[in-house]
Design goal:
single chain, mainly beta, Immunoglobulin-like, 54 strands, elongated, calcium ion binding, Cadherin 2
Length: 902
C-alpha cells in the first residue's frame, strides 16, 4: 500500500496480525471486529501522515472498537479521553476531530471507556506510525488438495471481502491483496482473475501480476455506480493446467461522502389556516443523498435557515430534523397581516454535522389560508331609498359592507337578512356576487294609500359561521328608510265580473244595471268616464258619466253569442289623471228562458219502402227553449192535404220522439212531404207545422232502397238538375269549337309546310344553287326537266323491267300547273303550292310522294327515285290505319293500303 493509506495492526492475545487500509475521509471496516470484554487495540499512523481539517472531511482512523456486553444485553456507550482530537460514535468508529500531525517516533495512546447501565470498562487504543518500507500485503492462499479432493485447512481467521475506498487519488495501480498457492514452492505458477471488472465489462479495473499474484486496482472506483465486485482467482502451471480450484474474491467499494443532498423539489408549497395553534402540521420536505444511507455519509438532517417575513416572530415554524416535517411553533398566524411565509430549508449529510457534512438548500413557501375571523361591517348605520307604488322587482337601495377576509370566498361573501320593519314580506335583500353589496328589492306591490314609508332593519352575515371566539360587531346591522311615491292608479270595477239575471226577450231601451268603477287614488280628485269595449251581439249601451247600462236590442237566449245562458260584455273606466289610467270590468248577463221558440221535426228527410213492413221512420222534436218550455211534445198529422191522414200514420213513442209509417199497404215510389204539427209544453204552448220529406222507394230484402234516385232524395231540386244539364251542354259546345279550330289550324299548317326552313324539313327538298362558281359539270346541267314536267318522255317507251313500284301509273295526265322555262326564284313557293293542291284533288293519284311530279329526272336517270315510299307486295300485312291521323294528304294511302281486301 502507498503512503496515502493508513496501516493499522489489530493485536489480540495471539500473535496473528492483519492489515487494513482507509483512504482520506473514508470509513474502513476491519477484517474482523475485536470482540473481547477488555481489548487492547494499537493503531499506528503511516509516516508523514496528515489528516485533513474537520471542516473538510473526517478521517476514519480505525475499525469499530467493539465491546461485547458479556451477555448482559444492555446498550453500551463509549467515550474517549481526548475528545478535542478524537470522538467515538455509537457504532464504535473512531474519528479525527481536527487535523493531526504525528511523529513516527511517538505513539499516542487513546483511552476508551465503555459504559452500560451498571458498570464501565476501559480499553487502550495505541496510535502509532508504522515503520517505513513496510510492504506486507494481505495474503490469500488456495486451500491445499490431497488426492484431487479439497480439504479445508484449519485456520484462526476467515478471509473476509476486500474493502476498497471509492474516489482514491492514486497513484495507480494500487495493490490490494496477494494471492498465493502452496504449489508455487515446487513449480512455477501463473495467476489470473476473471469476472466483471477484470476480463468482463467494465474491463481493466482490476489487474493481477501473473507471477507474484498481487491483485491491484487500476482506476478510482465509484460506489454509486458499482458497489461491489465478484472476481474469481485462478492458478495454473506453465502449461496452462489448473493446479488449484478457483476461489471467489469479493471486493466491496467503501462509500465516501462525495455527494451532496438533493431536494426532490427546489420550491415547496404548503398551506396552513390562519390562527392555527402551535404544533399544527404544515408540510413535509424531502431530499435524497446518493451516498450509502447505512453510513453517516447518507444520513440527512434538516433545519430552517431563515424565515421571511419575521412577523410576528422569527420562529413561527420548526422542522423535524430527520423527517423534514414542518409544523407551527408559535401562535399569531394572521392572513390579513402576513398572507405568506418563505422558509429556506437546509439538508446536511453526516447526520447534520456542520463541520464536515455536505449541505444543500430549498425554498418552502407557506401560504396562510383564510378563515372567517372578520365579520362583514356596514359602511354606514343608515341607508335610504324611494320607490313608486305598485312597482315590483325594483332595487330601492344598495347596502355596502366591508370584510377583511379573502374576497370571493365563503368567509367574505355576505348574506343579508331583514330582521324588522317588513311584516308583509314586500322586500328582499339579495347579494350582488361581484360587489358583495346588499340590493334592497321590492318583491310585492306597495300601495301608497296604505303605507307611505318603510323602515327596515337589515343584518349582514357571512356564508360560513365566524371562527370560534369571534363575535359580530354592532356595524353588522343597519337601518334602511324607504319612501313610497304616489302614482295615478287605474280605476277598478267592483265586483268584477258583475252577474245579473234577466229573462230573455227584454225589449230595447230597457235599463239593466249601473256598472261603475272606483278610483284607488284617494288623495287625488279625478273623474271617471265609461265606454264599451266588447259587446258581441251589440245589445247594450253604457252612459259615459253614470255607468248606467241599457239595452238597444232584444236579448235572445238562443243567440249564438250566448254560451251556457251567459252573455259577456266588457266595459272600460278611464280617469282624467296625468297620465290617464284605465280599468276594465266584465258584465255577465244570465238569460232566463221563455217559451219563444216553436218545436221542429228532426230529421227533415227520410226514406221508406213502398211496402210499410218492416220499415218505419223515427222522428224527434227539437225546441230551442229549455224545460219546462220544451217537452214533452204532442205530435199529430195536419188535416191538409187530405191524402196525408189517408196514407200516413204517426205514433208517439215518448215525450220527445214519435214514429211515422205508411197507413196503406202500398204507396208508389216518389218524394212526399208530410206536414206534422208539434206542440211544446210551455205555459203558453207553441205549435209549429214541420214538413218531413219522405222518399218512398223499392227496397231489397234488407229494407234498403234499390233505385237510383238518391240524388233527388239528397235534396237536388229541378232547378239544380237543369243547371247541371246546361253546364254539360255548354261544355260540349266548347269542346266542339275547340276541335273545329284545331282542324282549321292543322290545314293551315299543312298548306305552309313546304315553305319552312329546309334545314327543319325532314322531307325531300328542291334546293336552288345559284351562287356556285360554275364548274364544268354545273354549266352543262339541264334543269328543264324539273321546270317542264310535260316534256318528260312517255312511259310507254320505257323498258318494262325498269319501272319502279312507286312510279306514276299509266293514266291520263292530270292538269298540273305549268311554269316558264326561267322562273323567278321567288315564285317557286307558289308553284309548289299549286302543284300540291292539284295532287290533293287528283282522285287517280297513286300512293307515292307527290313531289315526284316536280323532281322527275327522266328515264334512265342515274340519280334514281327521290320517293321515300318503297311500296311492295311484302307490306300487305302492315296496318296503315294510322295514316288517317297524318292529314288529308295521307288519307288516300290509308284508303289504298288499309281497310279490307277489296
Amino acid at each position: 500500500f502507498s503512503s496515502t493509506f493508513i496501516r493499522s495492526v489489530c493485536l489480540l492475545s495471539v500473535s496473528t496480525s492483519c492489515y487494513f487500509g482507509s483512504s482520506w475521509g473514508e470509513r474502513q471496516n476491519p477484517l474482523w471486529a475485536a470482540r473481547v470484554c477488555l481489548p487492547v487495540v494499537y493503531i499506528r499512523f503511516p509516516q508523514d501522515c496528515f489528516y485533513p481539517p474537520p471542516q473538510q472531511i473526517s478521517m476514519f482512523l480505525s475499525p469499530p472498537v467493539d465491546f461485547l456486553d458479556c451477555g448482559r444485553g444492555a446498550p453500551v456507550r463509549m467515550e474517549c479521553n481526548n475528545p478535542s482530537d478524537f470522538r467515538i460514535e455509537a457504532d464504535g468508529v473512531v474519528y479525527a476531530a481536527r487535523s493531526l500531525q504525528r511523529s513516527p517516533q511517538h505513539a499516542l495512546v487513546l483511552l476508551v471507556k465503555a459504559i452500560d447501565e451498571t458498570q464501565a470498562r476501559n480499553a487502550a487504543v495505541n496510535l502509532s506510525v508504522p515503520p517505513a518500507g513496510n510492504t506486507d500485503l494481505m495474503e490469500i492462499s488456495f486451500p491445499s488438495r490431497r488426492n484431487s479432493q479439497l480439504k479445508r485447512m484449519k485456520r484462526d481467521w476467515v478471509i473476509p471481502p476486500i474493502n476498497v475506498p471509492e474516489n482514491s487519488r492514486g497513484p495507480f495501480p494500487q495493490e490490494l491483496v496477494r494471492i498465493r498457492s502452496d504449489h508455487d514452492k515446487s513449480r512455477a505458477l501463473r495467476y489470473s482473475v476473471t469476472g466483471p471488472g477484470a476480463d468482463q465489462p467494465p474491463t481493466g479495473i482490476f489487474i493481477i501480476d501473473p507471477i507474484s499474484g498481487e491483485l491491484s486496482v487500476n482506476k478510482p472506483l465509484d460506489r454509486e455506480h458499482i458497489s461491489n465486485f465478484h472476481l474469481r482467482a485462478h492458478a495454473v502451471d506453465l502449461n496452462g493446467n489448473q493446479v488449484e480450484n478457483p476461489i471467489d474474491i469479493v471486493i466491496n467499494v467503501i462509500d465516501m461522502n462525495d455527494n451532496r443532498p438533493e431536494f426532490t423539489h427546489q420550491i415547496w408549497n404548503g398551506t396552513v389556516p390562519e390562527g392555527s395553534k402551535p404544533g399544527t402540521f404544515v408540510m413535509t420536505v424531502t431530499s435524497v443523498d446518493k451516498d450509502d444511507p447505512k453510513t453517516a455519509n447518507g444520513m440527512l438532517r434538516y433545519k430552517i435557515l431563515s424565515q421571511t417575513p419575521e412577523s410576528p416572530t422569527s420562529n413561527m415554524f420548526t422542522i423535524n430534523n430527520k423527517t423534514g416535517g414542518i409544523i407551527t411553533v408559535a401562535a399569531g398566524l394572521d392572513r390579513e397581516k402576513v398572507p405568506q411565509y418563505t422558509l429556506i430549508i437546509q439538508a446536511t449529510d453526516m447526520e447534520g454535522n456542520p463541520m464536515y457534512g455536505l449541505s444543500n438548500t430549498a425554498t418552502a413557501v407557506i401560504r396562510i389560508t383564510d378563515v372567517n375571523d372578520n365579520p362583514p361591517e356596514f359602511t354606514a348605520e343608515m341607508f335610504s331609498g324611494e320607490v313608486r307604488e305598485n312597482r315590483v322587482n325594483v332595487i330601492v337601495a344598495n347596502l355596502t359592507v366591508t370584510d377583511k377576509d379573502q374576497p370571493n370566498t365563503p368567509a367574505w361573501n355576505a348574506v343579508y337578512k331583514i330582521t324588522g320593519g317588513d311584516s308583509t314580506g314586500r322586500f328582499s335583500v339579495p347579494t350582488d356576487p361581484t360587489t358583495n353589496e346588499g340590493l334592497v328589492t321590492v318583491v310585492k306591490p306597495i300601495d301608497y294609500e296604505t303605507s307611505r314609508t318603510f323602515v327596515l332593519t337589515v343584518e349582514a352575515k357571512n356564508e360560513v359561521p365566524l371562527a370560534r371566539g369571534i363575535h359580530y360587531p354592532h356595524l353588522s346591522t343597519a337601518t334602511v328608510s324607504i319612501r313610497v311615491m304616489d302614482e295615478n292608479e287605474s280605476p277598478y270595477f267592483e265586483p268584477n265580473p258583475k252577474l245579473i239575471k234577466l229573462e230573455e226577450g227584454l225589449m230595447p231601451e230597457s235599463a239593466l244595471t249601473i256598472f261603475t268603477a272606483q278610483d284607488p287614488d284617494r288623495f287625488m280628485r279625478q273623474k271617471i268616464t265609461y265606454s264599451k269595449l266588447s259587446d258581441p251581439a251589440n245589445w247594450l249601451r253604457i252612459d259615459p258619466n253614470t255607468g248606467r247600462i241599457t239595452t238597444i236590442a232584444t236579448l235572445d237566449r238562443e243567440s249564438s253569442y250566448v254560451k251556457n245562458n251567459l252573455y259577456n260584455a266588457t266595459f272600460m273606466g278611464l280617469d282624467d289623471g296625468k297620465p290617464p289610467a284605465s280599468g276594465t270590468g266584465t258584465l255577465q248577463i244570465y238569460l232566463l228562458d221563455i217559451n219563444d221558440n216553436a218545436p221542429k221535426v228532426f230529421p227533415q228527410e227520410a226514406e221508406i219502402c213502398e211496402k210499410p213492413e218492416p220499415n218505419a221512420i223515427n222522428i224527434t222534436a227539437v225546441d230551442g227553449d229549455l224545460n219546462p218550455n220544451a217537452g214533452p211534445f204532442a205530435f199529430e198529422l195536419a188535416h191538409r192535404p187530405f191524402d196525408v191522414r189517408r196514407n200516413w200514420t204517426i205514433t208517439r213513442i215518448s215525450g220527445d220522439h214519435a214514429q211515422v209509417g205508411l197507413k196503406i199497404g202500398f204507396l208508389e215510389s216518389g218524394i212526399y212531404e208530410i206536414p206534422i204539427i208539434i206542440t211544446d209544453s210551455g205555459n203558453l204552448p207553441m205549435s209549429n207545422t214541420s214538413y218531413l220529406r219522405v222518399k218512398v222507394c223499392q227496397c231489397d230484402i234488407n229494407g234498403d232502397c234499390t233505385d237510383q234516385q238518391h240524388i233527388m232524395a239528397a235534396g237536388l231540386g229541378t232547378g239544380a238538375i237543369i243547371a247541371i244539364l246546361l253546364c254539360i251542354i255548354i261544355l260540349l259546345i266548347l269542346v266542339l269549337l275547340f276541335v273545329v279550330w284545331m282542324k282549321r289550324r292543322d290545314k293551315e299548317r299543312q298548306a305552309k309546310q313546304l315553305l319552312i326552313d329546309p334545314e327543319d324539313d325532314v322531307r325531300d327538298n328542291i334546293l336552288k344553287y345559284d351562287e356556285e362558281g360554275g364548274g364544268e359539270e354545273d354549266q352543262d346541267y339541264d334543269l328543264s326537266q324539273l321546270q317542264q314536267p310535260d316534256t318528260l318522255e312517255p312511259d310507254a317507251i320505257k323498258p318494262v323491267g325498269i319501272r319502279r313500284l312507286d312510279e306514276r301509273p299509266l293514266h291520263p295526265e292530270p292538269q298540273y300547273p305549268m311554269r316558264s322555262a326561267a322562273p323567278h326564284p321567288g315564285d317557286i313557293g307558289d308553284f309548289i303550292n299549286e302543284g300540291l293542291k292539284a295532287a290533293d284533288n287528283d282522285p287517280t293519284a297513286p300512293p307515292y310522294d307527290s313531289l315526284l311530279v316536280f323532281d322527275y329526272e327522266g328515264s334512265g336517270s342515274t340519280a334514281g327515285s327521290l320517293s321515300s315510299l318503297n311500296s311492295s307486295s311484302s307490306g300487305g300485312d302492315q296496318d296503315y290505319d294510322y295514316l288517317n291521323d297524318w292529314g288529308p294528304r295521307f288519307r288516300k294511302l290509308a284508303d289504298m293500303y288499309g281497310g279490307c281486301d277489296d
